[in-house]
């Protein structure tokens, strides 16, 4: 029987926790303590196998007196992270160890987690990735005609790249473009900005900005970088940038900078057809992970939302 313990937040050894994520064969940026502390505060507990050989964060909220598990914004995947390959038996053991006090689950597992259990709804989610072991010429060859056309237009117009723009610039650009799609925009903007700043301080993130020749901002982005994976986390064009297709430039500049490295560029989505088409322009390959939903709430509050 697996020795999996449920540990409340205040008792988690975050140094050992981060060491496990750093060494995990399926490690990524989202389960690091700095990320969870930034995006969920102290409202994350954990399942821990042995002496932090495998871990699973349980990010929770409380509503109507019931605790429930949810997926924080800007956090694509969580689930089980392990030093060794996760067997179906180990995955099952972790899922069965989730306390019954969490009456509702709506959370994402990660690429390496396969689980199918009773009374649970499973949704296959899509992400698009590019293997950066290739050189830039090989990566560029896989762009479709539209992406190449946009880049050629940008080269003719001319542009400048700023490698270390401020997180505030990126957040302002992103929420000006897409803020209407998020609740409590000001609070969320502060959370993700703090998280991004912490990531940069830990060498787990970087920013890029694209300007025209007159110094007008066209596009800005923040990227997490950890465990041999670069995440396209928060990026958006300005109104001027939309006309030039500046997001193509931003992505191309990052791919160019990291081509030939032992990393993966992860677009972090999407199941929206138009967004998926945009990511596919760059020759990305679809990868799948699971969203799982389980509802053990009383009938009178089964409409619970995050």
Q: Helix coverage percent of residues?
A: 25-40%
According to CATH, the fold-level topology of the largest domain is: Aminopeptidase
Q: What is the average per-residue confidence, as pLDDT, rounded to a whole number?
A: 93
* CATH architecture label name of the largest domain: 3-Layer(aba) Sandwich
User: What order do the SSEs take from the amino end to the carboxyl end, as H and E?
Assistant: EHHEEEEHEEHHEHHEEEHHEHE
Provide the structure class. alpha+beta
Number of helices, where a helix is a run of at least 4 consecutive DSSP H or I residues: 10
Summed up, the domain count is 2
- Strand content of the residues, in percent? 25-35%
What's the CATH C level of the largest domain?
A: Alpha Beta
Principal-axes geometry comes out as globular
Query: Unreliable segments (pLDDT under 50, ≥5 consecutive)?
Result: none
Using the CA coordinates, give the radius of gyration: 20 Å
Task: Note the gap between the termini.
Answer: 34 Å
Number of strands: 13
Major β-sheet profile: 13 strands, mixed
